[in-house]
Structure formats: C-alpha cells, structure tokens
Write a structure and sequence with these properties.
Structural class: alpha/beta
Order of helices and strands: HEEEHEHEHHEHEEH
Radius of gyration: 26 Å
Number of helices: 7
Distance between the termini: 71 Å
C-alpha cells in the first residue's frame, strides 16, 4: 500500500473544500480553517482516514469479494475507469442504472443479453438476420456495453462500494444502505459523512485530487488481491506436498504386499 504523505495530498489540492455557505455542519470535525470563503480540509485527518479505509478495502479484496467503484461526474469518469480496471474491479462511470444493486437479477439478465449477442455473432446466427434487425441488435449491444460493460464480470453483489461525490451518487448510496453493503467514499465539505461507513475527507471536484486518492485506494486493493494469490499458491503447494507424501507412503506398502504375495506362492 502507498504510504500517505500529507505533502503529496497538499500538492494534489485534496485540502480544498467547498464555499463556506455550502458546507454541511457534520463535516466540522474534518475542517481545519476557512480561507477566502472556502473551507480547508484537515489533511492529517484525511491521511488517518485513508489508512483506515485502505486497511478495510484490502481485507475485502483479500476475501475475494469485488469492490464496485462509482463516479459519474465528468472529472472523475476516466480516472475511475482506468484505476478500477487496472486492479480488475467493476465500475460505473455512466448513468447509475436504477436497481443496480436492489434489482441485481434484472441487471444480470441485461449483461447475459450482451453475452448472447456475442454468441450470435460467433455462431453465424447474426448474419441470418435482416439488415434492419442487425442494426437494432448492434445498437442494443453498444448501449449495454456503454452502461454495463464494466460490470460484466460481477456475477454477484459487490462486497463494498467506493463512491466519488456522495451527493451526486445518492441513489447508489441508498441502494447500498438497503442491502447493508459497506460504503467507502471521498466526502467533500458539502456532504453528510453519516451517509457512509468509511469516509475520506477530500476535494471530490478536482481531477488531480481524485487521481491521488484513487491511486492510494487501488494500491491497497491490489495488495489485498496479491495476498489472496499468495494464500492460494501456499494452499496449492501444501496439497501437492500432501499428495506426493501419500504416494511415497503407498510405494513401500505396495512393495511389501508384492513381496508377501511372492512368498505365499513359493
């Protein structure tokens, strides 16, 4: 996991909050001061919360559960898509599909529809359709890919949600709360931190700030995945050793049986 340096957070502009008139009083414990009508976030508290968040996310990743990253605002889209896909985690950067979590079965059907169109193209069924039908199918496939392509590997509900800007993604937050899915988020001074389980007080409007926080978070997720791989490799090695031991024990027994059988024949 990346070591969190307060200076790096400062350079990335993580400390800039919203205008003082737009603040949420529940963010008061994380605000350091006010400057030119803007609230300044206490970066020492941000660093502590990042450590707490990363430890929890690393555990979830090590358990084999997926972490769904959500960010539909312009300045966060590309960053989230890049960082999440780098650690093989699902993400939503287009419009949040209503019922994405609470009606997951229906969403999975839409994803399966995408897979069935791909099969049609492979087995030649697609070519037997009329030109108009092919056009319609291609449009449907493109629409599904745009909205759900990034979650095609998510076969069950995620183990956690990581959100950039909880006010914008309030529908995703509500769905996760209904299903008791842990919510991790970048929370700015205009948001209510009580909405989430693990918060990182940070500027959620600047791409530089989002990039910095996401880099640290996905690094922790990667650590969890590597830990899981190492544990699996260790288990496989133990199994292989046990098998070879069993075979080694079986050989002398088989030889002894053959010897006894030969003596009886004599």
């Amino acid at each position: 996991m990346e070591k969190v340096e307060v200076k790096e957070l400062l350079d990335a502009g993580v400390h800039f909050g919203h205008l003082t008139r737009k603040w949420n009083p529940n963010m008061a414990p994380y605000i350091y001061m006010e400057r030119n009508g803007i609230h300044i976030i206490n970066l020492y508290k941000t660093a502590a919360k990042i450590d707490e968040t990363c430890a929890a996310l690393s555990k979830i990743a090590a358990s084999g559960k997926k972490i769904l990253f959500v960010a539909t605002k312009k300045q966060a889209k590309d960053i989230v898509a890049e960082k999440a896909s780098a650690v093989n985690q699902p993400y939503i950067t287009e419009r949040w599909p209503g019922g994405m979590l609470t009606n997951f079965v229906t969403i999975r059907k839409a994803v399966k529809k995408m897979a069935s169109i791909d099969r049609m193209k492979k087995d030649g069924t697609f070519n037997s359709l009329s030109k108009k039908e092919r056009l319609q199918v291609n449009r449907l496939r493109a629409k599904l890919e745009k909205n759900l392509g990034s979650i095609s590997d998510m076969t069950r509900l995620p183990g956690a949600l990581f959100v950039v800007d909880i006010m914008r993604e309030h529908i995703a937050i509500k769905e996760a709360q209904k299903l008791n899915i842990p919510i991790f988020a970048m929370v700015d001074t205009n948001s209510d931190p009580r909405e989430v389980d693990y918060l990182i007080p940070a500027n959620d409007d600047a791409s530089k700030s989002i990039d910095k926080i996401l880099s640290i978070v996905t690094s922790a997720v990667e650590d969890g995945l590597n830990e899981r791989k190492a544990e699996r490799a260790e288990k496989d090695t133990k199994k292989a050793d046990q098998k070879s031991e069993t075979k080694a024990e079986a050989k002398p027994k088989a030889a002894k049986k053959e010897k006894v059988a030969a003596e009886e024949e004599e």
